[in-house]
Amino acid sequence: MRISLFRKRGPTAVDPVCGMDVEMEKPPGGKWEHDGTAYYFCAPGCNRAFQKDPEGYLSGGKSVRM
């Protein structure tokens, strides 16, 4: 039997808070909509931070880089 070390990934999005790639199918930090656009998060903390100030992160004025 052959076991693959690489699993197939689905579509990804960029977490607007930290810039990490996040799988859109099952984002670890969940998904949140703002002004009709869905955003995906790597962790619940990034989701909460974005919800507090979405315009700050979308404008580039705020960011957290990992």
Number of strands: 4
Estimate the mean pLDDT confidence: 88
Shape: globular
Helix count from the secondary structure assignment? 2
Query: Which percent range describes the beta-strand content?
Result: 15-25%
Give the helix/strand class: alpha+beta
Radius of gyration: 14 Å
State the distance separating the first and last CA atoms.
37 Å
Series of H and E elements? EEEEHH
Characterize the main sheet: 2 strands, antiparallel
The residue fraction in helices comes out at 10-25%
Please tell me about this protein's structure.
The structure is a single chain. The chain has helices spanning 44-52, 54-58; strands at residues 12-14, 21-23, 31-34, 37-40. It has a domain at 28-66. It has two helices and four strands. With 66 residues, it is an alpha+beta fold. The longest helix is centred in the last third of the chain and has 9 residues, at 44-52. The relative contact order is 0.22. It has a two-stranded antiparallel sheet.
Features:
4 strands, two-stranded antiparallel ribbon, globular
How is this structure best summarized?
With about 70 residues, the chain is α+β, with helices and mostly antiparallel strands. It has helices spanning about 45-50, 55-60; strands at about 10-15, 20-25, 30-35, 35-40.
Helix-strand blueprint:
Blueprint: E1 12-14, E2 21-23, E3 31-34, E4 37-40, H1 44-52, H2 54-58
Antiparallel strand pairs: 1-2, 3-4
